[in-house]
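PT: before anyone asks, these are the final sequences, not the draft ones from last week. 448 residues across everything. Please model them as a single complex and drop the result in this thread when it's through.
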Amino acid sequence: MNFHNLDDTIIALSTPQSSSALAVMRLSGSFQVTDFKRFIRFSGPIEPRKMKRCQILDENARIIEDGLLCYFPAPHSYNGQDILELHLHGNPFLLSFIIELFCQNLAIRPARPGEFSYRAFANKKLAFNQLEGLKSLLDAQSIYAVHQAHGLLSGHLTEELEKLHDQILNHRAHLELSIDFSVDVGDEQSRQLILDSYQQVMSTISVLNRRAQIESHQVLSPQIVLYGETNSGKSTLFNRLLAHDRAIVSDIAGTTRDYLSSSLRIERNEYQLFDTAGIRQTDDAIEWAGIEKVVGLLKSPFCRVLVCRADQLVNLSSLPYLADFPPDLCLVTHTDLHKLQFMLLTEFEFPCLDVHRDDFISSFEHFIHQRFTRITSSEPLIIERHRQLCQKIHQLWIDYGDLLHEQQDIAIIASELAIVLDHLAELIGNESADDVLQHLFSSFCIGK
Ligand SMILES: Nc1nc2c(ncn2[C@@H]2O[C@H](COP(=O)(O)OP(=O)(O)O)[C@@H](O)[C@H]2O)c(=O)[nH]1
Ligand SMILES: [Mg+2]
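LR: through. Structure below.
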């Protein structure tokens, strides 16, 4: 890691560097609060984890700030070191001044991004998965993400993975037993034990693999993309769903070129709703660039919503892009002009909603919410690194199973098993490679 000595005393603002009523500054290292008495004044003894009034003094012992301090002595602190929190007024100028003052006059240096938490990791206060949970909690944009982040923080995933690790060790024990004592136990019986324990591990890994199939952005920042022919009524619907005139509506085909997006809140979840350029053959380079962007958006959104005029439903199957981008829902427009043929709707594999029905908005919201609930009920993994490793372990376990069934040489089988265990150790994360650690901590803010 690129952090300096873990024993240095570091300082940083834990709250944003902007005007606010209050701000929290934190110091971490190995110290007594009295070490800073020239600049931090207080009276009487300090009780750990209790707020106490204090004044901050400058080099000439003039009071420059009046606030509260709270001392968390090692090892019972967030990161296992001595931590001092200063609760001050949120004046960015004054806060920078205080940090500079301390760094110039005391053996203190500014913290790097994520350095407080890195120390928690180094002191085994937080496992790597928990740190990833902490990061997701700081970034969470949906209540689902908040719950998942708390699950990671409280170590649920780590527990599950450790159980899987035990299952694999149990399987390995059967394997070793069969090598050592197969004559006693009986070849058939010991082989059955190996295959049974293999299957047991397989069912745990399969659950994880299913959870790893859903791309995390689908539940962290779910996108609803309106797409379809020009003049089908996408922009009209976009405005109607947002309840304000955001997009230009016109009967001139090709009006929407660059896509528009806006937040849409449905039942405590925030979605990004996209209005896009109509998909058609065109010689206009700018319109074509817009269409290429639509294709990008349609690759894996949370929900593809096709917008189609009632009189064009009969030709729906001839639309070339539907094979690559099948809709999850179709909104049928212009039903005020053209009668909707209900028989036609039964031919489609996706549900259709008539936008001129009185209950259209509530039906649409219900559909979206149900879909979100269904996807999240399988508890998709929200960290990309976890998804990739789970998929990899699943594949490795299948390959390992082939070797077992083929009754390959035991040395080959054992080395394949060791590879699976290595990947699992990486997923649990306690022995993560330096570059993985570096990546995570550099994405933390300063002061975390
Ligand atoms: N009669 C009727 N006109 C509509 C309906 N939806 C949209 N329009 C009109 O169709 C034209 C194209 O609509 P627009 O929303 O810009 O389509 P887009 O190209 O898909 O974004 C505009 O003149 C709209 O007023 C509808 O359901 N019924
Ligand atoms: Mg439009």
